[in-house]
Write a structure and sequence with these properties.
Spore Coat Polysaccharide Biosynthesis Protein SpsA, Chain A, 60s Ribosomal Protein L30, Chain: A, 2 domains, 5-stranded mixed β-sheet, 12 helices, binds magnesium ion
Length: 387
């Protein structure tokens, strides 16, 4: 197999966006992260070099590097940035894809086709036929001088892919070229033929604020790298006299309640642990350690609020909760609807997305003797992270 690597250039200043655009939020991640994730997720791309401007390099370089991703600093010009990325490629790479980090909607199919053509012919550019009629308007005038035949024009995108030696020659010969807007024009000037590989109109460059709206819609319509994960949670509390009984955020009439550091709400504790489990974020005991006195008699609704905040930070949404209570007393069936509505309200879910069941332990063990209530919960979570 041909050894391939990618250089993702995200060093721009974003003058048309008013601020650097590469880390603007986009569909649960950021503009640059979507581009990075496409290349990093491709088995046939063995290394990815991300080129960042100084500020982004300092703020995010460490967190974005790792695995097959190396992060380097941008140069003073686009070509300087590509050269810095090129210098960081591992030895033995045969084909290189250069990609503009602001083309977040690039797909593995486009990358694969462009890399394959470059491996075959030496240089290939992802491109689309121009849809609009073109007018030539001489500089400084507002009058059309010519209407060229549109059929001869393609709009060049990225990735632009090259055999290693072809890109090396262009970067070396034109190292001081500050005006080149892509590498392929330098490769052309070296006398190499550059092939066009039909791409998608969705692979546009995010340049203006309206582009972000369109990009968000496109990534959403693709299911945008969403992944569904499932988490499991479990909790048990002793049932003792003289405590209020709280389950699912509802105070139930009963002579006994659950003993705990907080209100002992086993349904909410198990459900929160299930959500955190689906997010890969541990358990509620980490954020609310029982040893910390300030959490004594904590209302479990606050644990739910904390869990929802964690889900939001992770760009995730809870899809469904399913909890099974195991209790000898009180009888919970009469309270099903109240408990379900309460859990749904606390987790901001439609009522149909919460399931609640209760079982008896048939007299077996401590729960069977009515000394405790336990709860098992499963959460389904959809995350919008690209990788
Ligand atoms: Mg608990």
């Amino acid at each position: 197999m041909t050894r391939a690597a990618a250089i993702v250039v995200s060093g721009g200043s974003g003058s048309r966006m008013g601020r650097p655009k590469q880390f603007l939020p986009l569909a649960g991640a950021t503009v640059a992260e979507w581009s990075l994730a496409c290349f990093a997720g491709m088995a046939e791309v063995e290394a990815v070099v991300l080129v960042l401007g100084e500020e982004a390099f300092r703020a995010r370089g460490a967190s974005l590097s790792g695995g097959k991703v190396t992060v380097v600093r941008a140069g003073p010009t686009r070509m300087g940035s590509v050269r810095n990325g090129f210098a960081a490629l591992p030895a033995g790479i045969e084909v290189v894809a250069v990609h503009d980090g602001a083309r977040s909607m690039v797909t593995p199919e486009i990358v694969r086709a462009t890399l394959a053509e470059a491996a075959r012919s030496g240089a290939a550019v992802a491109a689309v036929p121009v849809k609009d009629t073109l007018k030539r308007v001489p500089k400084g005038l507002a009058v059309v001088s010519e209407t060229p035949d549109r059929a001869e024009f393609w709009a060049a995108q990225t990735p632009q892919c090259y055999r290693y030696a072809v890109l090396e020659e262009a970067l070396e010969r034109f190292k001081d070229d500050a005006d080149a807007t892509d590498e392929s024009q330098l490769v052309e000037r070296c006398g190499h033929a550059v092939s066009v590989v039909p791409s998608s109109y969705e692979n546009f460059k995010i340049t203006t604020p309206e582009d972000l709206t369109m990009a968000e819609a496109i990534l959403d319509s693709r299911g945008g790298g969403r992944e569904t994960t499932v988490g499991f949670g479990y909790d048990i509390h002793r049932l003792v006299a003289g405590r209020e009984l709280w389950l699912g955020g509802v105070r139930l009439p009963h002579g006994k309640g659950l003993l705990g550091h907080s209100d002992g709400d086993a349904v909410l504790h198990a459900s929160c642990d299930a959500v955190l489990g689906a997010l890969g974020l541990g358990e509620i005991g980490v954020a609310f350690p029982p040893s910390d006195l300030k959490f004594k008699d904590l209302a479990s609704k606050e644990i739910v609020a904390h869990t929802l905040a964690k889900a939001r930070e992770a760009g995730a949404e809870i899809v469904h909760l399913d909890a099974t209570l195991i209790a000898e007393e009180p009888k919970l069936k009469p309270h099903y609807e109240t408990l379900k509505a309460s859990v749904a309200g606390l987790f901001r879910l439609p009522p149909g997305r919460v399931s609640l069941k209760a079982k008896s332990r048939e007299g077996l063990g401590a729960v069977g003797r009515g000394e405790a209530i336990e709860c098992h919960a499963v959460a389904t979570v959809r995350s919008r992270r690209p990788a």
